[in-house]
């Protein structure tokens, strides 16, 4: 926990009085080490500053939205220019059409786009379109996969009733037999299959999509008339300049986008193939701020940088440099560290660490050295990072491995995550 006289501690105390739980959602730090700050002051490039003035190299990238660096001058200039002309208006600006054209030109499976604000908006809209298209109810999704915070998909059941979760069937990611069994259970009521671009569940090793699994999902949808949905909210533009499953040659009917498509400015999208156009036009979805022009201007500039720069190649190379360096230093320290997931969105966990006490110790030691990581969620790189930043992270990790090696035998259990050792993973 931050010091008693710290601004962070003071803000937490004030927040407790006026915000339920003091903070909520994925940016609450209740399941992070006690020394993690809750409140931040600013971000610039690859770095963030907490409210007490401490600077960190940020490998969370705002949980994904930061792709080209915080306060990117080109993207933010486009946003500010449009603010001066108009943002939330009685109707959309021409930028909405331009952005839809740009995204359709980028995503090979898509012929149309619709815009909203959050990833949950996009995934919920995808589910609605699939049910409108098929006139069926059942949806298949992988156990443990995260598709947002609406009642139908939230990972926390408080306030959720049985009917909110009705007509959902679950399979194991990358398990063809499990997927086929779920499809058989759905029978002639299957509306859609939701697929994460790779297995990026919290607390457990990540896994690349198995081609046989992806092809089976496509084959089931083709055979039954259901729609295949790839949820690219988290991974979009971090694995490919197209839908993530384009890398393995499997095209969905619908894809959902968000996080970094405007480099942190608030906008998300649902994209679809021609087969789902009529259904998409038939549903009623809207929001007072879904048509804002300034985030669309930021998105257009972000997509220009996606098309015209080598950002993807650079963050991939930096991610590989980080992965190789961590593996070398962990081995030298005699520690068994697992790094899974794509190098641009990796997760690291330690062997023999059921309650994450090693992970918490390592993350805290990195934080103390000015490197912000996460002990159980996948992380991100941004194009504002350079080799010097990766070297800083590796030097800090080497010191953190030393701390962990010297103190591993005496590490106290992480009580706040004790449910993990009881099988919640």
From TrEMBL:
InterPro entries reported for this sequence: Aminotrans_3, Aminotrans_3_PPA_site, PyrdxlP-dep_Trfase, PyrdxlP-dep_Trfase_major, PyrdxlP-dep_Trfase_small
Record keywords: Pyridoxal phosphate
Classification via PANTHER family: GLUTAMATE-1-SEMIALDEHYDE 2,1-AMINOMUTASE, GLUTAMATE-1-SEMIALDEHYDE 2,1-AMINOMUTASE 1, CHLOROPLASTIC-RELATED
Similarity comment: family membership: Belongs to the class-III pyridoxal-phosphate-dependent aminotransferase family.
Cofactor: pyridoxal 5'-phosphate
Keyword Manganese listed: no
PROSITE patterns recorded: AA_TRANSFER_CLASS_3
Gene Ontology terms for molecular function: pyridoxal phosphate binding; transaminase activity
Source domain of life: Bacteria
Organism: Phenylobacterium soli
Stated name of the protein: Glutamate-1-semialdehyde 2,1-aminomutase
């Amino acid at each position: 926990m931050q010091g008693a006289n710290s601004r962070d501690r003071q803000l937490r105390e004030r927040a407790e009085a006026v915000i339920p739980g003091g903070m909520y959602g994925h940016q609450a730090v209740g399941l992070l080490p006690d020394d993690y700050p809750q409140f931040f002051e600013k971000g610039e490039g690859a770095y963030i500053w907490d409210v007490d003035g401490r600077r960190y190299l940020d490998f969370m990238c705002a949980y994904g939205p930061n792709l080209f660096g915080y306060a990117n001058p080109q993207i933010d200039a486009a946003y500010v220019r449009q603010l001066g002309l108009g943002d939330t208006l009685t109707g959309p600006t021409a930028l909405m059409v331009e952005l839809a054209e740009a995204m359709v030109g980028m995503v090979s499976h898509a012929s149309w786009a619709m815009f909203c604000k959050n990833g949950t908006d996009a995934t919920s809209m995808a589910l609605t379109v699939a049910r409108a298209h098929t006139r069926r109810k059942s949806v298949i999704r992988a156990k443990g996969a995260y598709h947002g915070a609406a009642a139908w998909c939230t990972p926390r059941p408080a306030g959720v009733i049985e009917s909110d979760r009705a007509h959902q069937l679950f399979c194991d990611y990358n398990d063809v037999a499990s997927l086929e069994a779920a499809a058989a259970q759905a029978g002639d009521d299957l509306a859609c299959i939701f697929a994460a671009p790779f297995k990026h569940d919290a607390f457990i090793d990540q896994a690349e999509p198995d081609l046989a699994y992806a092809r089976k999902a496509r084959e089931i949808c083709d055979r039954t008339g259901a729609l295949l949905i790839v949820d690219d909210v988290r991974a979009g533009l971090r694995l490919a300049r197209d839908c993530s499953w384009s890398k393995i040659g499997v095209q969905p009917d619908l894809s959902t986008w968000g996080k970094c498509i405007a480099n942190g400015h608030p906008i998300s999208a649902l994209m679809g193939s021609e087969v789902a156009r009529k259904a998409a036009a038939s549903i009623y979805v809207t929001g007072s701020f879904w048509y804002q022009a300034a985030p669309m201007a930021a998105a257009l500039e972000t997509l220009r940088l996606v098309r015209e720069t080598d950002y993807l190649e650079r963050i991939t190379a930096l991610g590989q440099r980080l992965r190789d360096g961590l593996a070398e230093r962990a081995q030298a320290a005699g520690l068994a560290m697992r790094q899974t997931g794509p190098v641009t969105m990796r997760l690291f966990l330690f062997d023999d660490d059921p309650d994450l006490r090693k992970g918490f110790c390592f993350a805290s030691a990195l934080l103390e050295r000015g490197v912000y990581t996460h002990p159980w969620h996948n992380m991100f790189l941004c194009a504002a990072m350079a080799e010097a930043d990766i070297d800083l992270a590796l030097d800090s990790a080497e010191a953190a491995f030393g701390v962990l090696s010297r103190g591993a035998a005496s590490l106290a259990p992480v009580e706040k995550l004790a449910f993990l050792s009881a099988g919640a993973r």
